[in-house]
Design a protein that fits this description.
Number of strands: 7
CATH architecture: 3-Layer(aba) Sandwich
CATH superfamily: Gcn5-related N-acetyltransferase (GNAT)
Number of domains: 1
Largest sheet: 7 strands, mixed
Number of helices: 4
Strand content: 35-45%
Radius of gyration: 15 Å
Helix content: 25-40%
Shape: globular
Structural class: alpha+beta
């Protein structure tokens, strides 16, 4: 498994992963109708950095790093996506660990996940394991396609030790 910085040339391989996850509507608050060109902007052009996980020259996962600027510019955000074909192989753990290392290299002092669906048990379990705290709970902020209105969590970890 190899994690590398993505280029826009990687987006054709990222798009099926992005589209599958966004269309499911279970973990990201992007509209299910997000087009490929909108996704390119969201995932590749707006973030400070985007990364991919490759194995045998196939992209299996991706994450981006960005957040607000100004007085909050020392806190980064990440979003992670793993292909359904590659889940359960530790890719999310590897990406999160990699993203924390990159965050400190980029002089971020903390990492925040802005909007974690409380039903995303795998992510919640992983963020707990990797030392992220629940900094806030937004009641009924996420409209899950099967469970209806559920809470969204704000997860946070101070990286500057």
């Amino acid at each position: 498994m190899n994690i590398k910085e993505a280029t826009e040339n990687d987006f054709d391989a990222i798009w099926p992963i992005f589209n599958e996850i966004v269309c499911a509507g279970e973990t990201y608050a992007y509209p299910k109708e997000t087009t490929k060109s909108e996704a390119l902007k969201i995932w590749m052009r707006l973030p400070r950095k985007t990364y991919v996980v490759e194995e045998n020259n196939q992209i299996l996962g991706t994450y981006y790093k960005t957040n607000q600027g100004g007085p909050g510019g020392h806190v980064c955000n990440c979003g992670y996506m793993v292909s359904s074909k590659a889940r359960g192989k530790g890719l999310a753990t590897a990406m999160c660990e990699h993203s924390q290392k990159v965050a400190t290299e980029l002089a971020y002092k903390a990492m925040q996940f802005n909007f974690v669906a409380s039903s995303n048990e795998g992510a919640v379990r992983l963020w707990n394991k990797l030392g992220f705290e629940t900094a806030g709970r937004l009641p009924k902020a996420f409209n899950h396609p099967a469970q209806g209105y559920i809470d969204a969590l704000v997860r946070y970890k101070w990286l500057d030790v």
